[in-house]
Amino acid sequence: MSPEPFLGDAEHTAVRHHILSVLVENKAGVLARIAGLFARRGFNIYSLAVAPAEGNARFSRVTIVVDMESAPLEQIVGQLDKLVNVVAIKDLAPSDALERELLLATLSVTGKNRREVLEVVANTGASIVDVSAASVTVMLAGTPSSCDRLEKSLESFADVELQRTGRVALPRLGQSQPA
Amino acid sequence: MQLTGAQALIKSLEREGVDTIFGLPGGAILPVYDPILDSSIRHILVRHEQGAGHMAEGYALATGRAGVAMVTSGPGATNIVTPIANAHMDSTPLVVITGQVATKSIGSDAFQECDITGITMGITKHNFLVQSGREIPRAVAAAFYLATTGRPGPVLIDLPKDVAQAKMEWWYPESIDELDLPGYRPEVEIDERAVARAVQLIGLSERPVLYVGGGTLKSRAHAELLAFAERTKIPVVTTLMARGAFPDSHDQHLGMPGMHGMYSAVTALQKSDLLIALGARFDDRVTGQISSFAAGAKIIHVDIDRAEFNKVRHADVTLQTNVAVALRALDDAGATPVNLDVWWKEIRTWQERYPLIYDEPAKEGPLRPQHVIEAIARSAAPGTIVSAGVGQHQMWASQYWDFEEPGTWVNSGGAGTMGFGLPAAIGAKAGRPDRTVWCIDGDGCFQMTAQELVTASSERIPIKVAILNNAYLGMVRQWQEMFYEERYSEVYLSADLPDYVKWAEAMGCVGLRAHNVAEMHDVIERANEINDVPVVIDFRTDSEEKVFPMVAAGASNDDIIVHPLLRPDAP
Question: A92 and A153: one domain?
Fold first, then answer.
């Protein structure tokens, strides 16, 4: 749906942010171990997303956007790697990462703003996924910056309930991917 | 073969070669205490769970094997949190087993429930909440593997009561592959290019120093260190965590660096052009103000834990490996500095100008604590193990005792846990009954864990405890004297309250006291003759005595304060 091809998201992700794609054992408390490590070492998490990896019940992939101003990347990766349940860490510079995020937002729709809502949906590449008499839920799956644009567009509406997932990322395929 | 979870746990510990458990039973761990009666493993019943943890640490530091402690849930578990944190800071291999409420009750605020895996996440290398009997053997095998390999550390196993009671079919992992640790790879291939760069830096260096840390002892690299140092003639300093990794009697040894280090060791690091850091982590107590620490030195950093690289100080070459492997690789590659005669000449002048020194003891007392330690050391059998608490007495023990071999210095470094010394001495003696074990303690530290003297008496573990009784929390007093205009706040303890001799006797030990030099020699002689019960000696020492040299907290190592007798204006 998004009109954007794989342009990356370097302009959105400030240089001080870095993406870690972390494969972990799918065991109780793993997320607490990661969150606790970041908290006690003073590393900042910008966003975090977790889901089972490769349909495998044994492993999950945690995508962490870290703030490198809070600590050097080498230190964050080194400490993270010491967690016994962390299996592999891929660190992705924003330019090397293919990032996507999902945004859901529910808006009140009245006769007056109906046209505006439809315009925002059309202009941002979002879609309407749920409708009731007085409201709609729109969805956008796209780059973090496209989600930012949609979020900004929705600022003028009243009673918006909005939820973003935080980004997920995989390494770009580089040469093998046609531009 | 069907076993209960409790039987499987004990059998698993036997499979791991455990000979001693330090522990205290309670409700949730009760099932496990039954099969202990039928086991060959010696259980040492402590009087407080903190004691069990520090004993296990003392055992581990003296033997090089993982120490094992077992306690119940709730307060039993929280009481052992301090030793776990201490072991984590000092990379001491420990396996701690805690009872837990039954799986069905977890999360219900049941009696003596606490989330000990949550509490200890940040202070263990790893921990397990065992969910079924079948998992017990794997958890135990994994715990010992994790605790003793790579960078060692404490591992906790939390065992719910119902899991301990239920039947399981006995099995035991036969290989590492069965441990289900896909994210744990302690063995790292040595980077030959980094070795080559290190050899190059060593070849260019005119003022190198071997900065030896606790990782050298943990990787049992003392023989490699001796060979490498003697071949290259590079000066050696051993940190508080590395005492014993290189013989103190060796003329290449400059002693301990850091806040209370030898002048020559501190200054050699400062003036060096190349530090070869071996399992050391640039702790603030060693570096002082980091920006001025060894400002002209390049750094070769050897550590098994890559998270230590560039954490505090940028390294020019990093070698992620065991210290022994790194030293062998550097040796094989022929790492040799240029002629170091000029460097050594400079170092020798510092050693001559600034030796360890203390005021002449007055015959009638009070005693000089340094003199007491020297007197004990001089009369101690070779290979005597020394433990200490934390504070002035610990620094004096490190300074004035000559450590000649690994496993003879048992102390709390990173965490600085007061009260560590006495239970750690008991653990060390339990692990090395063939050795004499002295605990050099302070009066403040002693009072924190002295209930374990009952453990030592009842289990017939004849340690010797020297209380350097200056009636104060001495190190805090020293700081208040030097940095708070002698405004002494909450540091006075009294020399006579408690009566340490009566305390010792009440707990089944021999209690002795010395006020002056003659009594000092007499009680040390008597203590050395007693080998069947613990001995506690109350040495009345001068409360104004301070530890020198000293680098004030946050100050540069260039601004080291030497003993008043060595200052230019000294009489």
Answer: no
A33 touches chain B (CB under 8 A): yes
Contact of A57 with chain B, judged by CB distance below 8 Å, is answered with no
**What one-character DSSP code corresponds to residue B368?**
P
Structural domain of residue B13, as residue ranges? Answer: 2-179
Type of residue found at B140: V
Residues A139, A130 contacting (CB under 8 angstroms): no
Please tell me whether residues B438 and B470 are part of one structural domain: yes
User: For residue B490, with 0-12 CB atoms within 10 Å meaning exposed, 13-18 middle and 19 or more buried, which class applies?
Assistant: exposed
| DSSP β-ladder status, A44-53 and A97-108 | unpaired
Tell me if chain B has a CB within 8 Å of the CB of A161. no
Residue A23 lies in a domain: yes
Contacts of B182 in chain A (CB under 8 A): 25, 87
Chain-chain contact of B118 with A74 (C-beta, under 8 angstroms)? no
Of chain A, the end-to-end C-alpha distance in Å amounts to 17
A38 CB neighbours in chain B (<8 A) are none
Instruction: State whether A74 and B183 contact (CB < 8 Å).
Output: no
Residues A104 and A162 in one domain: yes
Query: What residues of B act catalytically?
Result: 49, 111-112, 161, 475
- pLDDT tens for chain B, 571 residues long, are 999 999 999 999 999 999 999 999 999 999 999 999 999 999 999 999 999 999 999 999 999 999 999 999 999 999 999 999 999 999 999 999 999 999 999 999 999 999 999 999 999 999 999 999 999 999 999 999 999 999 999 999 999 999 999 999 999 999 999 999 999 999 889 999 999 999 999 999 999 999 999 999 999 999 999 999 999 999 999 999 999 999 999 999 999 999 999 999 999 999 999 999 999 999 999 999 999 999 999 999 999 999 999 999 999 999 999 999 999 999 999 999 999 999 999 999 999 999 999 999 999 989 999 999 999 999 999 999 999 999 999 999 999 999 999 999 999 999 999 999 999 999 999 999 999 999 999 999 999 999 999 999 999 999 999 999 999 999 999 999 999 999 999 999 999 999 999 999 999 999 999 999 999 999 999 999 999 999 999 999 999 999 999 999 999 999 999 999 999 887 6
What is the rounded (10 degree) CA torsion for A27, A32, A35, A39? -150
- Structural domains in chain A (count): 2
Q: Indicate the residue of B182, B305, B307 with minimum beta-carbon distance to A25.
A: B182
Q: What's the token pair of residue B268?
A: 């050699």
Instruction: Note whether residue B18 is domain-resident.
Output: yes
What is the CATH classification number for the domain harbouring B311?
Answer: 3.40.50.1220
Sign of torsion, CA A88 A92 A97 A99? Answer: positive
Domain-located, residue A12: no
Of A29, A85, A87, which is closest to B117 when you measure between CB atoms?
A29
B445/B329 same-domain check: no
The count of domains in chain B is 3
